[in-house]
Amino acid sequence: MRDDALVVLVTAADMEQAAHIGRALVEERLAACANLVPSMRSIYRWQDAVHDEAEVLLVIKTTAARFAALQARVLALHSYTTPEVLALPVVAGAPAYLDWLRAQVAAEADG
């Protein structure tokens, strides 16, 4: 079953930055939740050099309708010049969880 739910991956420099981003997204109803996965090691090429650094992974749940606003907010809050923001479609999930997710990010939802 295809759904409008998305899982968005964002890497951050440390837990403080990841928590700041995750909390802002949830408080602003751009995400239903954000899981912070600490102690991740990233190896990547940036400006013609290979880097090997510790990062934190945010696993963020939202809907396709809220993705553009979520992405804009991540870009505004993030310290990286080019932060990772990758949206992956949810192809199936527990109906009750998906209903909860949608309710949390509904633009008209109140506190």
State mean pLDDT (0 to 100 scale): 93
**What's the number of helices?**
3
Strand order of the largest sheet: 2-3-1-4
Low-pLDDT residue spans:
none
Global structural class: alpha+beta
Topology as a string of helices (H) and strands (E): EHEEHEH
The backbone outline, from C-alpha atoms, is elongated
Percent helix: 25-40%
Q: Rg, please?
A: 15 Å
| Strand element count | 4
Portion of residues in beta strands equals 35-45%
Q: Tell me the major beta sheet.
A: 4 strands, antiparallel
End-to-end C-alpha gap:
30 Å
Protein model, in words:
The chain is 34% helix and 37% strand. A hairpin with a 2-residue loop joins strand 2 and strand 3. A 4-stranded antiparallel sheet has the order 2-3-1-4. The N and C termini lie far apart (30 Å). By secondary structure, the protein is an alpha+beta fold. It has helices at 15-27, 64-77, 95-105, and strands spanning 5-12, 33-46, 49-63, 86-89. The protein is built from 3 helices and 4 strands, in the order βαββαβα.
